[in-house]
Design a protein that fits this description.
alpha/beta; 3 domains; nine-stranded parallel beta sheet; five-stranded antiparallel beta sheet; 19 helices; 43% helix; 15% strand; racemase and epimerase activity, acting on hydroxy acids and derivatives; metal ion binding
Amino acid sequence: MLNYQADNYGKADKEVLAEGIGAALGKGAEALAALPGVYPLSVKHAQGGLFCLIRTSSGKYLALAGKGKAAGRYVGETFSGVKICALDAANAAALRETFPWTAPVPIGKRASFGTGDRLGVATPGHLLAFEGRRIFPVLAQQSMRELGRTGRTAQAVIDDAGWGAFQMGYAGTFAADADHIKKIDEALSCYRLGFTMFTIDASEQINLKAVRLSDEAAVAEFRKIPAWREIAARYTGKSWNFSRGKLALSINFSEAELARSALVYHAAVEHMASLYHELKREAGGEGNFDFEISVDETETDTTERDHVFVAVELAARGVQWQSLAPKFTGQFQKGIDYIGRRGEFERQFASHALIAEKLGPYKVSVHSGSDKFSIFPLVGQHTGGYFHLKTAGTSWLEAVRVIALKNPTLYRKMHEQALERFEQDRATYHVTTDLGVIPDLERLEDEGLAGLMDIVDPRQLLHITYGSLLSGKNSRGNYLFREEIYGTLYDHEQTYYEMLERHIGRHLDSLGVERT
């Protein structure tokens, strides 16, 4: 992968490295790739220029030599005939023009896997895990909540994934998921930045209070919806019959069942359809973006009847979607394995997968998918390998593992801060973390710190508080840990990449993702 064996090697001063690059140019691309500090897989010829990513004592830069038409697009300083360019938004945009494969594209009808990268430095490790796998990587994936907590921008999510792809010389395809979009302005803004997938969170429009209405009250309320007759006509006297192997489903709607489904989901369907058509107009038509329906941010499971209702109503409004995320039985807590009855999950998941196959086909999407190893084989089996799965926190936790291993002093400070912040930060998460069972760090040797990331409670402690750890500041307005977190991971990026390759690879193996 890199042309050095140990972490923290090859970090020269950028001017000195530029001189070395200039001297190596006359010897060819192989000599340049062998130069310490140059990421060898990034060495590329294009449009009369020679490009590579370099590792210096002050961070990573793009180096380019030549006077072709591409060189003028980039902004930087020139040393010894080599232009050294910051990895900023302007140069990232230029990179996408020069090397189109550093820009995300829609997924379409392919199995896919999202690797949310809260730090913006994990893409090379993710690509190592995806190498040779029959699955479409979503390398750029962040929610609006994550952006707020990490202090990153949506533009940086796109750019950082592109730089990571360039570093690895990855000329394949990848997508960018604007996750948990609730508002049209969020969707349009992200589309204009280059996002290609939009996960629509309609939880604010889902009316779960209707579940508790009596049959008579539900029907009466349903008939207050202006389009209730039009909706009813799509279901009255109709039945949906699906089968595959030994699994068979027959779904129909009584008057009360239809009324209840409509009261719960009608406003959500209208909201999602509105966002879809706004995006379609902005994108210039269907096929230029992926659209995911999310109804998982609720307290009650999505029934098979609910799934059919949402799908039929969206189709009636001209929506074309690539994936749908139901709310499954059990608990999908962050960064740990599935909690619940595996047999009941399998029954429910198989039914949703069958509906998605017959009404689409579209993918069943599994959210909060990090580390759900006990159910991954079921996801792969019942979808025939045609699914979407989202992860994010697990890559952050592998970064924490690196810090615990390589900079235990920093980890101890982060752990202490996490304990102070946990009760406040857990407000937007459903977790069952017991702080009382987390080992006392004063009794733990440095060598044992990394192992905390294999234990449920400390793992969730560090997961839930990521925003406070990355964005927390002291009384002088300086970050508490941010610079040292990034510095440690930069010094030990090889270790981080290897951990990501192994850990995300374990996810893919458990899901049954084949190698080419």
